[in-house]
Write a structure and sequence with these properties.
There is one protein chain. By secondary structure, this protein is of the alpha+beta class. Helix content is about 50%, strand content about 15%. It folds into 2 domains: about 70 residues; about 110 residues, no CATH class. It has a 3-stranded antiparallel sheet with strand order 1-5-4. A two-stranded antiparallel sheet has the order 2-3. Strands 6-7 form a two-stranded antiparallel sheet. The chain is globular.
């Protein structure tokens, strides 16, 4: 049975362009189950129907949930998605340039610091990529509004570092799978 209080919170999250991940970052800086995700999965048919009646598609997979306008299931073509991809690719370029493993971004004890975002900002082509993607020149401002506000990344309240959510990790998993398939 649908929990009405959780349903209101879910509606707020999804209608404001946020992703609901399987896990969230708790106040202790560690990953913990996200109750809103569990609520959706326990009542998936009801939630899919609710959003369909409002002209949206609820897209749910094993790790995260989001909505898109209409019946198309390809979020990759939206403006926000393209900006998120650009930012994640810049972060990935920084990781590979500095020989970091992806686990740096996915472990609750890891993440990127503000100083590391400043280094990404100063990498060659960052400014041009941001401008061409209509994100201005401030990398961290774009990261905050596109990745953190939408729950693609979380800020660890203990360390102040920024780590990937389930949705953020899925981006790199898809990228690696595509790369592996080409080889």
């Amino acid at each position: 049975m649908v929990n009405m209080q959780k349903s209101v919170k879910i509606y707020d999250h999804l209608m404001n362009g946020r992703i609901i991940n399987r896990q969230r970052l708790g106040s202790n800086g560690e990953f913990e189950p996200e109750p809103l995700f569990a609520e959706i999965m326990d009542n998936l048919g009801d939630y899919k129907n609710q959003y369909a009646m409002s002209g949206f598609s609820l897209v749910a997979n094993a790790d995260y949930v989001y909505i898109i306008k209409g019946q198309a299931h390809d979020i990759s073509k939206t403006d926000i998605a393209m900006k998120a991809y650009c930012l994640l690719l810049l972060i990935g370029k920084y990781l590979t340039t500095h020989n970091y493993r992806l686990e740096k971004l996915s472990a609750s004890s890891g993440g990127l610091s503000q100083a590391e975002f400043n280094k990404i900002q100063s990498m060659p082509q960052t400014k041009e990529i941001l401008e061409r993607a209509n994100m201005g020149e401030d990398l961290f401002k774009s990261v905050k509004s596109i990745l953190i506000e939408r729950h693609i990344m979380f800020e660890n309240p203990i360390t102040g570092h920024f780590i990937l959510s389930d949705a953020g990790r899925a981006f790199y998993d898809e990228l690696m799978a595509g790369f592996s398939a080409e080889i």
